[in-house]
Amino acid sequence: MRSYGFTDTLAAKHYATALRADIRDGLTRTPKSTAPTWFYDARGSELFEQITQLDEYPVWRAELGLFLLHADDIAVRTRARSLVELGSGSSNKTQLILEALGPAGLHYVPIDVSADALHQAGAQLAKDHPGIVIHAVRADFTAPLVLPELPDDGPRLIAFIGSTLSNFRRPARGPFLRGLRDMMRPEDFLLIGADLVKPVPEMLAAYDDGKGVTAAFDKNLLHVLNRELDADFDPDSFDHVAVWNSAEQHIEMRLRSRVEQRVKIRDLDLVVHFERGEEWVTESSAKFSTDALQAELSAAGLRTDQLWADEDAGFALMLTIRSTD
Ligand code: TRP
Question: Domain Histidine-specific methyltransferase SAM-dependent spans what residues (predicted)?
Answer without folding.
Answer: 20-319
